[in-house]
Amino acid sequence: xxxxxxxRGRFSLLERSxxxxxxxxxxxxxxxxxxxxxxxxxxxxxxxxRFADDNGVSLTEARRLLGAKELEEFRWDVAQYIExxxxxxxxxxxxxQLRNAxxxxxxxxxxxxxxxxxxxxxELYAGQETQLTEAVRRAADDAYTGALQETAMxxxxxFKTVSLxxxxxxxxxxxxxxxxDRTFRDRCWTNKNSLVQAVHKGLTQGLLRGDSPAQLTDAIxxxxxxxxxKAGRLVYTETAYYSALAEKQGFKDLGVEKVEIIGTLDGSxxxxxxQLDGKEIPLAQYxxxxxxxxxxxxxxCTTAPVIxxxxxxxxxxxxxxDGEEYYLPAGTKWTEWKSRQKPDTSTFQSLNLEPxxxxxxxxxxxxxxxxxxxxxAKQRQLQNAHKRLLMEASKxxxxxxxxxxxxxxxxxxxxxLAGSPEGHTVGLPxxxxxxxxxxxxxxxxxxxxxxxxxxxxxxxxxxxTAVGHDSTIYAIEKTSTFDRSAADILVTDLGISxxxxxxxxxxxxxxxxxxxQSLNFIVRNCISELVGxxxxxxxxx
Length: 541
Description:
There is one protein chain. By secondary structure, the chain is α+β, with helices and mostly antiparallel strands. It has three domains: 230 residues, no CATH class; 100 residues, no CATH class; 181 residues, no CATH class. The chain is 54% helix and 11% strand. Strand 4 and strand 5 form a beta hairpin. Helix 5 packs antiparallel against helix 7 and helix 7 runs antiparallel to helix 8. The radius of gyration is 27 Å and the shape is flat.
């Protein structure tokens, strides 16, 4: 017979299956976004080419009514949109708006192009909802069957493979699971409206500023990137939640009375989930998102049944810094795994731009900046410390970071420290009293995911700065309202996303430039969210 540790190994494998289902769905969604953005760019380019004056288009020009010939062409486009909408089963409200647009005698050029862009968004979200629905239903069905199979096999119960029928799946996936009482379909609808509003606002503001056609299209592309990031978070979180619901039903059907929380053994697991690894919950208190996973967006924890019998040893998956899987005894808890890891290691891949040499012009351009942590006099001291840091960096091999730590009176706590020629990144010590950490970025790029993780996880690190070799300064600062728990979840999510980008780069699914661009985007998005939880962000060029 097997001991209870058997379950941890078996059910950690089931979680991996759910994660792969989410990954597959996200790849399909990425293709939908690329297609929608391509068509949107095409519509905008055509519109700007026809109506632009001296390679620009004003808001006044955009608000001019379509001429008779232009109106006829627009109605022909709308007729095609209506046909597509009917075949694809697009939102009925949008279909009604299309019919109204087709019947109008007058319509402005701006309204025409917004209608064309809106059609691409509606088609995008119709496909996205389909992909997400299929992923959620597949993950739920697999989780239910897996929970029954693994539990029955472990108990030596004769088991015939059973799946959830359509009615059960419909009932399961119709449940809302957050305090706002919204299902994943509701969230798709909300995200769609947010994207429509953001594109409308961006287009109107761009026309008011007199942006060029290229600037208009780039601004809309950025809005699509923000929405794509939300879609990734949604698919991972929703598949995890509905898998948990289905597993509960499987446990209930076999008479399981208690479950155990299983955290993922890798460097991207947040401290919240890590500390819950091994906690037992009665099935009667099983509530995904509250007492059992998912505890936050992109949560990769799962549960396993607690069986009061002796069973044979099993294995449990862990992942090293490079994402490679290996196996440990099934009874290994996250806290035990974490204690075996090297200090300050990270699974995050750094996809930096090419390093730049330090010039005296860059040193001279270093600026002081206002912050809450330091008064005006100490801000000037920090400015001088940044200059000295750059000068020290100029003595190092190209690409090697240097750094130094100060107390809140700008008294040095360390000498200037340098990374190795092989690893480049400088490691700065942690302290038990409030302090400031400074370091250089040879590529002049923004904070890395590892920078942000260290900043969040170190309670006494109040101000972190990065000085670019081109004199750009990035700084992030904790305020009195800092919410560490929320910030921990955000940087954990960031780390997972960064690892995915790194994997896509190494698998040649992304070019070097695309990987860097994607990483910079998710870092800036994470920083924007962190600001809402009590952090200040500064960027000086």
